[in-house]
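Q: Please design a sequence for this.
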């Protein structure tokens, strides 16, 4: 082995992707140790880095050619020791001359001074800051001015970062190709105009405001949406972005008669579009998109009903689907999510089954995701069965889908991946048809109340199931996670309070990593909400009014953002959650599903 050339070893190591395997292999010999160290181009470190600065310096010496470094302190507690601080970034920048990509997450010991050390990283092309609460616009400006190679910038949940000089500077330079701004309170959609000529070369843009919740009858106007919304800002999206390929907007409000049609009309290269609860849109915007974005390959629309003149429905109708089917010949992926739409009133969704089927027949669709699509039934599944290229289908909370629909979809010639969540009309008999076909490579069934684990076995090469039969065990485990006995609470707490407390409880478990997967907690929550006697005992009218909000927060957004809930509220949440679980356990034999 010692006689083999280093080039051969290096080529061999390139084919090994798992870090644990590389670590084991490097212990075989001194030669492999050195070659593997020189070959390693990326590391991901965080809470286990102790003492932080010295440990990082040692890693940088061990791997002298690092290009990508991720420093993630999510889940950090004082017991882990001190985090990496400003001096640590100084060590990183001086020891890693090849550094091109850096991610900092939940690094509370790093501020503007530390960020300034990155000026030495002349090759830095990608910077991602997530919940770096002590970094401000000043520190960001120092980086963008000195790092001339910067082409990708991600800012997520950075409260102290405003939109002043750094955004204008990046726009004037025009080198940025990827800009992601999510949940940054100091940056509004009006501020984006400061980017100016920078839009010309931008290829990916993501903008999401921090507070993105769902409106109900008691909510005020525009609650949970961009507070900077200005209906008179007519030039909001009047800029050139002909190189834009990937666009995602979430939770913003736009003047209805202006919409995004001016932006869409200039995104000639757009391939991927995601609009999550963007207010002020209508069919005219989608028609403008279809006429200009002929290269569109993926579209994702997250919609809830609003008042449109004399109707209460979601923003787009079949006219939008028709425009896409006529002008987007490369469309391969369709993701439609509907929240707050009653199953009793399918007219609250602007799309119809015929409109969606027409789109699927006209475009080379390979992936379809439908959440809360009450209008889509077994006849729609029959139409899907003839889709020649359909490979992946995901159905979530689609109440009109039954066993008959599964019998149809199993005929789809290319279908290999199927996911069913909260589809309660599907039973073991329907799943057995999937097993008989032996076509699926992946089958995921979660919280379908009439499907058992036994029925799913052998239905695909890879099977993942989470059924209601796990309810008793999950609820028991959920109770055991409580650290202290529940104190006295009212027997009829407000369900607004319950919504917050369960959100907090799930997030606490997720953040503390006491449960590495959120699915059990989500399931426990769903079980509580499905438990009809509990709803009747506390507040009978709640589930009708808030069911979709629950599903949206828990099923559609697994990593719920409750960052504004303070510690005393979190502690109170545990008490309420324990009380709710007790209610559930008293009548375990009376479980009634929707």
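A: Design:
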């Amino acid at each position: 082995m010692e006689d083999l050339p280093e080039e051969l070893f290096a080529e061999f190591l390139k084919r090994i992707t798992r870090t644990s395997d590389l670590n084991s292999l490097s212990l075989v010999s001194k030669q492999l140790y050195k070659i593997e160290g020189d070959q390693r181009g990326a590391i991901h470190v965080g809470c286990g880095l102790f003492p932080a600065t010295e440990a990082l310096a040692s890693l940088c010496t061990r791997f002298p050619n690092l290009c990508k470094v991720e420093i993630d302190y999510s889940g950090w507690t004082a017991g882990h020791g001190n985090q990496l601080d400003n001096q640590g970034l100084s060590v990183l920048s001086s020891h890693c001359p090849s550094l091109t990509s850096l991610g900092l997450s939940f690094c509370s010991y790093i501020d503007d001074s530390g960020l300034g050390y990155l000026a030495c990283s002349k090759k830095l092309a990608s910077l991602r800051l997530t919940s770096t609460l002590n970094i401000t616009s000043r520190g960001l400006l120092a980086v963008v001015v000195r790092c001339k190679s910067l082409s990708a910038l991600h800012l997520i949940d950075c409260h102290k970062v405003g939109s002043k000089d750094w955004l204008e500077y990046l726009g004037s330079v025009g080198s940025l190709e990827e800009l992601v701004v999510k949940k940054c309170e100091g940056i509004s959609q009006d501020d984006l105009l400061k980017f100016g000529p920078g839009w010309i070369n931008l290829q990916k843009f993501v903008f999401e405001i921090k507070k993105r919740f769902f409106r109900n009858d008691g909510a005020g106007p525009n609650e949970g949406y961009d507070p900077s919304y200005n209906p008179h800002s007519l030039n909001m999206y009047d800029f050139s972005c002909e190189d834009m390929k990937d666009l995602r907007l979430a939770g913003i409000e736009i003047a209805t008669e202006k919409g995004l049609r001016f932006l869409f009309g200039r995104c000639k290269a757009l391939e991927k579009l995601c609009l999550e609860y963007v207010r002020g849109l209508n069919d005219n915007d989608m028609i403008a998109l279809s006429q200009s974005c002929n290269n569109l390959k993926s579209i994702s629309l997250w919609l809830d009903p609003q008042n449109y003149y004399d109707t209460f429905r979601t923003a787009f109708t079949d006219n939008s689907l028709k425009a896409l089917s006529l002008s987007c010949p490369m469309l391969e992926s369709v993701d439609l999510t509907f929240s707050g739409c009653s199953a009793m009133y399918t007219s609250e969704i602007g799309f119809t089954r015929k409109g969606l089927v027409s789109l699927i027949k006209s475009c080379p669709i390979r992936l379809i995701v439908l959440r809360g699509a009450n209008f889509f039934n077994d006849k729609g599944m029959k139409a899907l069965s003839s889709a020649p290229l359909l490979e992946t289908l995901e159905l979530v909370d689609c109440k009109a889908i039954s066993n008959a629909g599964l019998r149809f979809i199993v005929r789809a010639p290319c279908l290999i991946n199927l996911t069913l969540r909260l589809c309660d009309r599907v039973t073991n008999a329907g799943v057995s048809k999937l097993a008989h076909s032996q076509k699926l490579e992946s089958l995921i069934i979660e919280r379908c109340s009439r499907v058992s684990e036994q029925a799913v076995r052998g239905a695909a090469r890879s099977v993942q199931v989470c059924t209601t039969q796990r309810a008793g065990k999950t609820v028991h485990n959920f109770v055991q996670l409580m650290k202290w006995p529940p104190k006295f609470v009212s027997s009829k707490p407000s369900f607004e309070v319950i919504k917050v407390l369960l959100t907090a409880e799930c997030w606490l478990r997720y953040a503390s990593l006491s449960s590495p997967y959120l699915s059990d907690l989500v399931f426990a929550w769903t079980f509580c909400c499905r438990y009809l006697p509990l709803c009747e005992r506390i507040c009978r009218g709640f589930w009708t009014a808030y069911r979709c909000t629950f599903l949206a927060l828990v099923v559609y957004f697994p990593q719920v953002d409750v960052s504004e809930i303070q510690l005393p509220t979190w502690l109170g949440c545990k008490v309420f959650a324990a009380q709710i679980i007790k209610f559930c356990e008293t009548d375990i034999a009376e479980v009634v599903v929707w």
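Q: Thanks. Anything notable?
A: Residues 567-586 form the longest helix (20 residues). The longest strand covers residues 298-303.
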